User: Which sequence fits this backbone?
């Protein structure tokens, strides 16, 4: 069951990348966003959560559960979390959600473009947490 | 008329089969016409308590009652969410269109909570919420200031099983709610000055829950807005028994409990 979900999300990833150019220059751009570590940017789940809320709440479409998923090819939250950080950054910040922000959610596009590096990194950190079986105290 | 009959029989069949941690009835979206959607209805939250301790838990019933009352009082009164960018709601068709719309979401559910004790795993369904009582937790964590702490409870975030050390729960009655609210999606707080907050976790927890935290829990509870377009709702399976088993067996958590009671 879990394996099928992984296969499914990998499958849709490959489709995304082939349909919506993940070209080299774009990848490089994101790499620098992710790798450059600024001391002033502390990764913190609550900061990442604040970004999600500010973007208009991604989790109404990227649902918590896959039964039923929002639409057949829309990854659930955990599947997004399972992508590696670079791919996830490409998906959100470079490919702009397969061009969907521009087409369907222009308001999100505006907010995405106004995020600073630290907010971007915290957003990725927050999404990725869902794949880490986060233990709370 | 015929359609109505079919709808009615469908919803009564749904009613009969409904179980789980979240059960909603009379769900309704109200669009005020100027960008606000109000979500209302009756929501029953059930938390099942599984006693895995090796000693007497004489105050358990009163702690459960207290926890039940607190969950209710913290969730009640509604909450205002952040601006949500989603699809436009069509009130006449009771469905969402394919066009973007920005809404402010007002949560106005009427909450009831039930905290009940179960005696075996057979009373735990895949979509239930669980709070397991244990003897001890060996896990230690480091806070943002670099200090190490033990913890009176441990919960797998967002939907996962919650645990508390029974003796710690007796000393700090709010720990049960604190842990359960992690299940409902809330994060821990560590910053100085937040000691009065329920989600503060360095030492004794406070009791305050902010509007934002309430909105986050409401969003967790009604995470798929399309469920609001049906009048009844019960949360999907979350594999609770397996999740609890895996969580308890994870050696990095360092749980001590009466294994004979885990059956
Ligand atoms: Zn906590």
Assistant:
């Amino acid at each position: 069951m879990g394996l099928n979900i992984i296969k499914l999300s990998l499958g849709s990833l490959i489709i995304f990348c082939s349909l919506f150019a993940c070209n080299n220059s774009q990848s490089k751009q994101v790499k620098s966003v992710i790798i450059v570590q600024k001391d002033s940017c502390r990764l913190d789940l609550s900061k990442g959560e604040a970004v999600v809320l500010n973007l208009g709440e991604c989790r109404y479409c990227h649902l918590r559960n896959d039964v039923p998923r929002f639409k057949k090819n829309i990854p659930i939250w955990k599947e997004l979390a399972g992508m590696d950080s670079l791919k996830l950054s490409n998906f959100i910040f470079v490919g702009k959600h397969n061009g969907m922000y521009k087409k369907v959610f222009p308001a999100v596009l505006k907010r995405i473009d106004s995020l600073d590096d630290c907010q971007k990194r915290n957003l990725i950190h927050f999404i990725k947490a869902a794949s880490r079986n986060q233990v709370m105290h | 008329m015929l359609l109505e009959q079919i709808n009615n029989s469908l919803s009564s069949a749904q009613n009969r089969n409904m179980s789980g941690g979240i059960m909603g009835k009379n769900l309704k979206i109200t669009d005020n016409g100027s960008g606000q959607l109000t979500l209302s209805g009756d929501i029953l939250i059930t938390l099942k308590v599984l006693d895995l301790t090796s000693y007497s838990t004489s105050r358990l019933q009163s702690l459960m009652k207290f926890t039940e009352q607190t969950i209710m009082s913290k969730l009640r009164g509604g909450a205002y969410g952040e601006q949500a960018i989603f699809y436009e709601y069509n009130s006449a068709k009771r469905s969402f269109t394919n066009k973007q719309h920005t809404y402010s979401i007002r949560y106005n559910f009427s909450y009831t909570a039930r905290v009940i004790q179960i005696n075996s795993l057979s009373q735990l369904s895949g979509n239930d919420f669980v709070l397991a009582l244990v003897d001890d937790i060996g896990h230690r964590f480091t806070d943002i200031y670099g200090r190490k702490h033990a913890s009176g409870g441990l919960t797998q975030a967002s939907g996962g099983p919650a645990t508390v050390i029974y003796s710690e729960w007796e000393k700090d009655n709010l720990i049960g709610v604190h842990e359960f609210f992690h299940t409902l999606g809330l994060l821990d707080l560590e910053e100085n000055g937040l000691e009065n907050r329920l989600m503060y976790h360095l030492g004794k927890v406070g009791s305050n829950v902010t509007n934002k935290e309430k909105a986050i829990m409401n969003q967790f509870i009604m995470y798929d807005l399309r469920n609001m377009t049906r009048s009844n709702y019960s949360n999907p399976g979350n594999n609770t028994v397996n999740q609890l088993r895996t969580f308890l067996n994870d050696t990095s958590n360092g749980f001590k409990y009466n294994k004979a009671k885990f059956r």
Q: What stands out?
A: Residues 1-16 of chain B have pLDDT under 50 and may be disordered. Chain B touches chain A through 38 residues (CB under 8 Å). The longest helix of chain B spans residues 2-17.
